[in-house]
Design brief:
Order of helices and strands: HHHHHHHHHHHHHH
Radius of gyration: 23 Å
Structural class: mainly alpha
Largest sheet: none
Helix content: 55-70%
Distance between the termini: 40 Å
Strand content: under 5%
Number of strands: 0
Number of helices: 14
Length: 278
């Protein structure tokens, strides 16, 4: 009993230390973003405990940030991410259903190819792909920003593994009732797959939210720039407002964190099923 209490205490202490180590840099970014201009450096050389205390600051950096080009970039990021989630799931769901519930020759080979392609870093093909998109007149367009992220192999993988965990008796009963594949997917599979849909949707969202190279190559005009590009443009050859850059960095960091915390249960449940069946 005493050993159990000691083990729990050590685990709790380790969790607290880990949380502090993870949270402290983000807290420093937030506190520094409240200080005007580059004044936060006054507390960094040498490092002072005041660097972590939000005293003497205000939200002027956020007001200036959201009244400029960054606000449009933030809207574009949300819009592109929403399109990616909607059309990405529209592709991933039937693909995952076909790979889990429909028997056809070469199914394992197709699934292996999808996983293999998903493991290739997108940045390795971004530059030649951007040349093709320019030839197809898709550069500087929302379609150009969205299309490469739609066929997400990891989203298909998560959904396929979750579908495999659904009892086959339900699918057999649906076939006996004459629902067909579409009816089975719509009425049986999808209502049971909310955690997997949320997990796949989060993957699609994060793939767009953290993208930098592709939006830099495709979204060339200010009207099509995403938030990371707009944030990078705050630093010019003649001026660098680190206060606004830190404010923008905090905004871009905290939004996916809020979504992950809100959908933590479903996201974790979707990932916990990926290794159950092959």
């Amino acid at each position: 009993m005493k050993q159990t209490k000691t083990a729990r205490f050590l685990l709790l202490a380790a969790a607290v230390v880990t949380a502090v180590v993870v949270f402290l840099p983000l807290w420093w970014v937030f506190v520094s973003s409240l200080r005007p201009g580059n004044t936060y450096v006054n507390y960094m050389t040498p490092l002072s405990w005041m660097a972590f205390i939000p005293v003497g600051g205000d939200f002027s950096n956020y007001a200036g940030l959201l009244s400029g080009q960054f606000a449009l970039g933030l809207f574009n990021s949300f819009f592109v991410a929403a399109l990616t989630i909607f059309f990405g799931l529209a592709i991933a769901v039937p693909a995952a259903y076909a790979l889990s519930a429909i028997e056809f020759r070469g199914r394992g080979l197709v699934f292996g190819f999808i996983v293999l392609v998903a493991m290739i870093p997108f940045d390795a093909i971004a530059i030649p792909l951007s040349s093709l998109f320019q030839q197809w007149s898709l550069s500087d367009s929302y379609a150009g920003l969205v299309l490469p992220a739609l066929a997400n192999g990891f989203a298909i993988f998560v959904l396929r593994q979750f579908f495999l965990g659904i009892p086959s008796e339900l699918i057999d009963a649906a076939e006996v009732d004459g629902l067909g594949h579409f009816g089975t997917l719509w009425r049986i599979i999808l209502p049971l797959s909310k955690p997997a849909l949320i997990g796949a949707g989060m993957m699609l969202f994060l793939s767009q939210w953290q993208a930098y190279l592709w939006p830099l190559l495709i979204g060339t005009s200010p009207e099509r720039q995403l938030a990371p590009i707009a944030l990078a443009n705050l630093s010019t050859l003649f001026s660098v407002d680190l206060g606004q850059i830190l404010a923008g960095s905090f905004v871009l960091s905290v939004i996916p964190m809020i979504l992950l915390l809100f959908f933590q249960k479903q996201y974790t449940q979707s990932l916990s099923t990926t290794g159950l069946k092959g």
